[in-house]
Amino acid sequence: MTGSRVIRVVPGGHEEAPLTDADLLATLSPRDRSRPCLRVNFVTTLDGASTSDGVSGSLGGPADGRVFDLLRRVTDVVVVGAGTVRDEGYGAMRLSEDAATWREQAGLAPQPVFALVSGSLRLDPESTVFTEAPVRPLVLTTDRADPGARRALERVADVVACGEERVDPHLLRDALVERGLPQMHCEGGPRLFGDLVRADAVDELFLTLAPMLEGGHGLRVSQGADSDDSSPLRRMRLAHVLRDGDELLTWYVRDRAQTA
Asked: Are 251 and 237 in contact (CB under 8 A)?
């Protein structure tokens, strides 16, 4: 096919030395921390499922878990949808002492901020997500959220409206940047990712390909709104491919100079 240039990535001609955490951190760290950037991290099976038995934790191998932790280390704020917090059993977000020390040496706060996205505010203020948090969490919601639930959560978190009826991805980004949190890292879930994609608010995607087939009813990594079937394609540029055995870890950057 004209214009096609196929090259061999794996298996390579020789085995390179395994990357250390320092190597990975040098690769994953933002080059310009003052420039706002929203990253998203997901794992998927080869047939496109983001969950097995309703959760994603069983899909990723050790390499995926390692990069997952390191991505938290280099960010200002970790953004997660409330449904994912419930489904995946999130507790208080606290990095290890080594990670906190690394962040301080890099000029960052010891711990990233945890930001939960919830239009309905169906969150338990007595959860360890709030009561054991090393940094006061953020809750990103809407103007029409239940006032009683908002008052309860305001005792344990900073609650910020980012839209009237739905959380607006652009207002979400603006709210975080205004709070001095320009490096944003989203861990899902699929509906939040779908909203971010439709708004063209995603700058980078870290996608792990788990070497397995699900063959069931697992969700895609991105779930669209039922009323919107016309979202255009967004062109992404491949930045890196990492490999651990049969598991591939890819890093794509939004190519806003091109349209697909």
From this structure: no
Which residues lie across from 37 on neighbouring strands? 183
Report domain extents, the chain.
Answer: 33-224+232-254
Structure tokens at 106: 């890099």
To the question of pTM greater than 0.85 for the whole model, the response is: yes
Residue type, 1: M
What is 168-216 written as a DSSP string?
A: -HHHHHHHHHHTT--EEEE---HHHHHHHHHTT---EEEEEEES----S
> Coil, helix or strand for 70?
helix
Amino acid at 194: G
3 state SS of 114? strand
User: What is d(CA 185, CA 72) in angstroms, rounded to the nearest whole number?
Assistant: 7
Class of 33-224+232-254 per CATH? Answer: alpha beta
Residue 36 near residue 218, CB atoms below 8 Å: no
The reported pLDDT for the residue numbered 57 is 62
| Residue-wise pLDDT tens digits, 99-136 | 999 999 999 999 999 999 999 999 999 999 999 999 99
Contacts 24+ apart (CB under 8 A), 238-244: 239/204, 240/27, 241/9, 242/19, 242/63, 242/67, 243/10, 244/61, 244/62, 244/63
